[in-house]
Design a protein that fits this description.
Blueprint: E1 2-6, E2 9-12, E3 17-24, E4 33-38, E5 45-50, E6 56-59, E7 67-72, E8 77-82, E9 91-97, E10 100-101, E11 105-110
Parallel strand pairs: 2-11
Antiparallel strand pairs: 1-3, 3-8, 4-5, 4-9, 5-6, 7-8, 9-10, 9-11
Length: about 110
Amino acid sequence: VQVVESGGGLVHTGGSLRLSCATSGFTFSTYAMSWYRQAPGKERELVAVLNSDGIPTYYMDSVKGRFTVSRDIAKSTAYLQMNGVKPDDAAVYYCFMFGVWGQGTQVTVSS
């Protein structure tokens, strides 16, 4: 079982970024997945949840209306579309699925 995030990088305030979570080793379409993030000195926090039907069931308040979680079953990949990025969104973003954490992808926001 593998969970690998990508797509992080430097983004300007107000810009957009799409994170990917590529998976392998299990039946992707039957599991819910979650995106978390952790900023330096802070606890890891839940950002968004996509249920096993591919329906978003949770967004943390600060990202509602700006972030969108989705998936592509054919590619066994989940996504986190980040629009209107703010400095507070800077963090390492992690994908969690099937009890497995990815290694994280860094998002840096410049003002």
